[in-house]
Amino acid sequence: MAARSVQRLGRGLSLGRGLSLGSLCFRGSPRVFSTAAQQRSTGDECGPEDPHDEPKHPLSDCAIKHKAIKLEEQVRDLTERYRKALADSENVRRRTQKFVEDAKLFGIQSFCRDLVEVADILEKTTESAAEEAEPSNPNPTLKKIYEGLSLIEAKLQSVFAKHGLQKMNPVGGKYDPYDHEIVCHVPAEGMQPGTIALVTQDGYKLHGRTIRHALVGVAVESQE
C-alpha cells in the first residue's frame, strides 16, 4: 500500500510540473508574439525615408543674386518687346485710320477727273453763247440760252465746292510744279518773271490734293 501511494504521489508531481510549464509557455507566448509585432512595426517606422522628404540644401547668396539678375534681364527684355509691339500696333491703327479717311475723301477722285472735263465743255459753251447774245443781237432765244447755261455752270461749281472740289485761280501767282504744268512762255509785260500770265486749262484740287494740273503760260523776261 505504501508503495502504491508513493507512485501516485510521483505521478501527480510530474503531471503538475508539466501543466505548470505548459501554462507558463502558453501564457508567455502572447508576450513573445506582441514583442515580434512591436519589432515589425518599429522596423517599418525606422525603414528608409521618402526621398521627397529629404531636406533641400538652400541656395547660396551668389546663386540667388545670379538668378535675380537673370530674372531682371528677362523682365526688361519682355517689357521692351511689349513696348515695341504696342508701338507697332498703334502705328498700324493710325495708318489704317488714315487709309479709311483717305478712301472716304478721295474715293470719288476718278469720277471728279471725268466730271471736270464736262465742266470745261460747259464753260466754253457758255462763253460762246455770251459772245452771240450781245446787246447788238436782238435774238431773245440766244439770251435765254446764255442765262440758262450760266445758271448750270454756277450750280455745278457750287456742287464741286460742296464735295471739296475747287478750281484753281493761278493767274498772277508763282509757278508751282505740283499744281501747274507749263505749256508756253510769254513776255513779262508788267509782270514779274516766273509768275503765271495765262491759263489754257483750269486745274482742280480735291480736298487740297491736285487731281488735275493747270496748263499755264509763265512770264519770262523779253530778250531784245
If you had to describe this structure to a student in words, what would you say it looks like?
The longest helix is centred in the middle third of the chain and has 46 residues, at 61-106. This protein has 224 residues and is of the alpha+beta class. A 3-stranded antiparallel sheet has the order 1-4-5. A 3-stranded mixed sheet has the order 2-6-3, with no helix packed on it. Helix 3 runs antiparallel to helix 4 (140-162). A hairpin with a 2-residue loop joins strand 4 and strand 5. The termini are far apart. The model is unreliable at 13-49 (pLDDT under 50). It is 61% helix and 14% strand.
Please write out the topology.
Elements: H1 2-45, H2 61-106, H3 109-132, H4 140-162, E1 165-167, E2 180-187, E3 196-201, E4 204-206, E5 209-212, E6 214-220
Parallel strand pairs: 2-6
Antiparallel strand pairs: 1-4, 3-6, 4-5
